[in-house]
Write a structure and sequence with these properties.
Shape: globular
Radius of gyration: 18 Å
Structural class: alpha+beta
Strand order of the largest sheet: 8-7-6-5-2-10
Number of helices: 3
Distance between the termini: 45 Å
């Protein structure tokens, strides 16, 4: 088997888990016309970000190199969040893999936020976020970690506001297999440096990791595994109004 074919097979194996992730239902009550409109705006945003996530999954797991997702702003703002950094270390082996990216963020007129971060979609406010779609990681006997690196490109690398429909153009910038280790057991340490440590800690703990917050911006988790597969996917993102 050629090196190129072997790498492609490896990526397909990694991203089958992306396609199988399940969403978490999120509901909210409404009691006035204004709240109905706000809820409709938020639900449209959630569907848009779910569609974005599915489009990226499809692009990465296939031969496609670009996808376009439409999001109706409805008076909200589409922008990029603060940089998130992820790092996976194989304890005792002096081996570490990491990546940094900018999350995609949509905020409604009443302050509700939807975030695509590293393959995970969340919905909430400053007081806390709920997970709408789990990140494409798997921990346990076999550990699979694809770093989904979103990077702003083009002239609209800041924020777009208004009531128009925005096209989110996502282009595959490259794929790289960082590691494939099968001769465990290993102890691994997984760190996420982010402004949303609460939701990342809950999510990683729900995936079986033992986590703590080393400081206000870093979640540190550990677990044991028999095999490790780490990949990097570069995703160039452009907002077009």
């Amino acid at each position: 088997m050629s090196r190129g074919v072997s790498q492609l097979v490896g990526f397909v194996l990694v991203f089958t888990i992306v396609l199988s992730t399940a969403g978490v239902a999120y509901t909210a009550g409404v009691s006035s016309l204004g709240e109905v409109r706000s809820a409709e705006q938020a639900n449209n945003a959630e569907r848009g970000f779910q569609s974005l996530s599915h489009n990226i999954d499809d692009m990465v797991a296939s031969d496609a190199t670009r996808r376009v997702t439409s999001v109706r702003l409805g008076g909200g703002t589409l922008t990029y969040g603060d940089t998130v950094t992820m790092n996976l270390t194989v304890v005792g082996k002096d081996v570490s893999y990491g990546a940094s990216y900018r999350p995609l963020v949509y905020e409604t007129e009443n302050g509700e936020r939807f975030v695509y971060s590293g393959g995970m979609v969340t919905r909430g406010r400053e007081s806390g976020h709920a997970v709408v779609r789990q990140p494409p990681f798997r921990f346990g006997t076999d550990t699979l970690v694809p770093f989904m690196v979103t990077r702003p490109t083009g002239s609209n690398a800041g924020a777009i506001s208004g009531r128009t429909t925005v096209a989110i153009r996502t282009t595959l910038g490259g794929r790289q297999e960082f590691a494939r280790r099968t001769d465990g057991p290993y102890t691994i340490r997984f760190n996420v440096t982010t402004s949303r440590t609460d939701v990342w800690q809950r999510t990683l703990e729900s995936n079986g990791l033992d986590c703590s917050t080393a400081d206000a911006t870093t979640v540190t988790c550990e677990t044991t595994t028999q095999s490790i597969h780490v990949a990097l996917v570069r995703l160039n993102v452009k907002y077009v109004a």
